[in-house]
Amino acid sequence: MFILSINRFDDFSAKALCDFINDKLYPEIFSVLESIDMHIFELMMEKNSQLNDIVNCNFQIVSKEIKMLFSKYEVLMFPRLISMDNSTISLTPIIDNHKRVYKIFKKIRHLLDDYEIQATWSLKQKKCINELYVLEQSVLYVLYLKENFLLAEIKNTSRNEIAR
Known about the structure:
By secondary structure, this protein is mainly α. It has four helices and no strands.
């Protein structure tokens, strides 16, 4: 289960925050992704419904977006931040990925009535919904850290380069 911790991320160096996200948060999110995928597969085998199909489709899309976004950070952004590379970089594609992830989670949340558990649901459905909620909160937490600390660092570095 994903546990939010209270840290003063202002005190983290870029490398320490990249390591924290990469070593602590990413593995937990990938584990939840696998678990949800398994739950959805089981639910679809057990009871084929239009809602299950739509949720599965949106989950598969958000899963791919998350993996693509995380790999972009791992391959492009983390090394740049750690090396303190001062070259300018366009953050638009990454911000667009963030927006797509937010939008898909909003659709899933709407489809599942804000993750409100129904008494008539099976235990598998309840677990799946709970893990979808945990996934959303975990990913939003990571995106918050990236937008407010890592991307802010890149924007500040780029501004300093332009000012010189």
